[in-house]
Amino acid sequence: MTCEQAQESIALAVYGELPDEERHLLAQHLMTCELCRAEYDAVEGLRKAMTLYPQEEPSANLLARARMRLEETLDAVPQGGWVQRMGRRFRLGVVRLSGAPVLASALLVFGLAVGGYGGFKLGAHKLHQQQSKMILKALPIRPAQVAISNGNIENTSGNLPSNEPNDSLMIDTAAAQIANVSQILSAPNSNRVEIRFNRLVPESISGSVRDPYMRRLLLLGVVAPQNSMVRDTAVDLIARECAMGGCKEGPDRRALMEALRYDSNPGVRLDALAGLQPYIATDVHVRNAVLDAMLHDADPIVRVQAIELVAPIEADSSVRQVLHTVAEQDENPHIRDVSEQVLQQEPPVQ
Amino acid sequence: MSDALSLVSREAVASHPPRKIVRTGEITSETELIREAQAGSRAAFDALVRQHDQAVLRLALHLTGSEQDAQDVHQEAFLKAYKSLGNFRFECSFYTWIYRIVTNLCLDLMRRRKSRREEQAVLIDAAGGEMDLLVNVSDDRAGANPDRELERKQLGRHIMSALDKLTPRERMVFELKHFQGLRLRTIGEMLNTTEETAKNTLFRATKKLRANLATVR
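YS: structure for the whole thing
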C-alpha cells in the first residue's frame, strides 16, 4: 500500500468503514511509515475531539412544540373527496401489485390451475352427458301401451313391471344393447316363443315369433357365441318360418346363411340348410352358400343334405360343376356316390 | 499501531429493521403502519411520526444550530412525507426515506445560510455572525458547572467553526457518519449518490476539519 492510498484509507479506518483486508494492509503500512502513522493519529484525534461536541437530544419542550406545530399543519391539509381517496387506494393497489411480482405470478399460476381444473371438470361432465345420451339413444324408449299392443310383450324384469299403466319406460328390447340371448323357449304347435336375454340385468320377453321385435331377438340368438342350444333353437325357428316361405330377402336369410357357413354346431347348420331350401333356386346367394356347404362343410351329413337339396335344381352350371367336383374329390365315398347319382339324374346342360 | 486500529470504535451500524410499535394494546409493524397511512389513516401516520421525529429533530438541530430552523425542518419534512407517502414503494426503509427528505431540506437551508453568511462576512468583518450562532446554541444547553461549560463552549465554538467551513454536502456526510453513525452506503442512498462518492466526501471533510482545527490545538 502506498502512502497516498493509506491517507485515503485512514479516515475510513477510523470510522470503521474499511474492509478487513484493507485494514490489514493499512496496519502493515502504518507499522513502517512514520508519516502515515502521524496522519492516522491526527484523524483519530479529530474523531475524539468531535466527541467533545456531542449531538444532544432535543429538549422535551422543543419536541412537544414541534409535534404540536406539525399536528396543526397536518390538520390543515385538505383530505380530499371520496374520488381522491378511491384514486389513492387504486394507485396504492397498483403499486402493491407491481411491488409484489411474486404475488402476481402466484395469482396467475393459481388462476391458470383453477381454470384448467374447472375446464377439465366441465369437459368430463359434458363427456359424461354425451355418453349418457348415447346410451339413452342406444336404449330407445317407447310407451308401454305400444309395447303391449305390439305382440303381447311381457317384461319380467323386477325393475320394469309391464302391467303398470303409468310405466312409460318400456325398453325396445330388439334395438337395445343386449349382451346375449340366454334361452329361447318355443311352445309346440304354436308360433309363441319366449326369449330370455341379458342386458344389464337378465330379462325375458315373450311374444309371437312373427313379431318384428321377437324376430330381431331371434337374429341375435343366431349369433349367441356361448350357447349352441340358443343358436340351434333360433336357427330352427327362423328356418321354420323361412321354410314356410315367410322369409323375404333380408336379415333372416343372411342369418341362416351365416349359420350355415360359420356355426360350429352341425345341427344348427342342418337347420339353417333346411330353412334355406325354398330359396336355393331363386336366390343366388343362398345357392352359393349351399354349394359352399356341399364342398367345404366338415360334417358329411350336412354335405349330403346339401347335395339332396340342390338336386331338384335344373340346369345350373355352377351346381353341376360343384356336383362334379364333389363326385370326384370328396373324401367320403358315400358323398361321392350321392353326387354321382344326382348328376346322373340331372339332364345335361343345354 | 495495530492496537490503535483495533481500538477504533466501530459505531453501531444504523440498521433499521421493521420495528414493532405498541399502539393501544396491539403490536403493529412499521410496514403495516405505512400501508395504513398510505390508505389515509392519520393515526397510523402520527405513529410513524412519533417513531422518527425525535431523531429528525436532533439531526436538524445539530445541523442548523437553531431550534427555530430545526422546528421548520421537522415540520416541513413530515408534511412533505405526509403528502408524498403514496409514492413510497418500500424500495428502502422508511427511516432512509424520511432522512432523505430531512437531509435535502437541511442542505437547502445550509446552502442558503452559507451564502448569506459569506455576504455578511464581507460586510461585518471579524465581528461576524459565527458568534451569534454559537450564542444561540449555548443558550439552550447550559450546564451545571460554569467552568467546565465555558471550556466546552470554547471547544464547541472551534469545532462548530471548523464544521461551518465545510461545504453543505461535506458537512452532511460528516454529520451522518460521525454523529448519526450511519453506514456510508446508507448515507449515499439518502443523498442520492454512491457509496464511493460518500467515502471521498468523508475523506475531504476530515482533511478540512483537521486543517481547520490544527491551529486551535
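YS: worth flagging: Chain A touches chain B through 51 residues (CB under 8 Å).
IM: good catch. Also The CA atoms of residues 304 and 335 of chain A lie 6 Å apart.
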